[in-house]
Amino acid sequence: MRNFLLGVLSGVLATALAATALVLSVRGEASPTSAPTPMASPVPSGRPTDFAADDTWLGVVDLNSSEIVTSGGGFIDVSAKGRGIRVSDRGIHAQHLDLEATLPWAVAATQVGEGVELYAAGSGRAGISRTIEVLGQRVPVKATGTVRADNGELVIEPESVDLDGPDWLDTVASAAARALVTIRQPVQGVPDGLRLTGVSVIDTGFRATLSGDGVTITN
To answer: Which molecular function term from Gene Ontology is one that the record holds (predicted)?
Structure first.
């Protein structure tokens, strides 16, 4: 996630700076007789008071991307909006950042654990499939549960649990199985100040919303 956000904002900053350079170039080529009367430029609201000569500050940045791939996985259908983006030799920081993106099922399953399968189970619920070990036996288990964001974490709480084994095993292992298919997953690699605020289930994965103030994207 950290590399993802860095890539997102770095790309936006590069585009913004290139556009600024183009505007300045066009102005430099204009005839002196056609130059407009100089006017005082207002200081943008929210601009830092300790603005240094080598700092770059952007008031509002919007970005939409169909896909972002990082070393930790990938996101699709990404929408990001930042306010008060400041770039300096101390890193990239945002006064406020909102992010919405889809975490595909396969990527989320890899983050949860080896051998886990996640999928849409209908009615806004997520399905979980994995193999557990009970009384020396490896038993496949499937569960369907509700999804929510809780204290910055992705939570999947099972409503139904199905063990693919004999009836006596279902009785003995039901509590253990329920614990192993209850998912409480921290959002890994999120920059300081940004946290998961909402999550829902869609056909392609988890639709996640993250938000925060004073976000340090990279140092």
So the answer is: tRNA pseudouridine(38-40) synthase activity
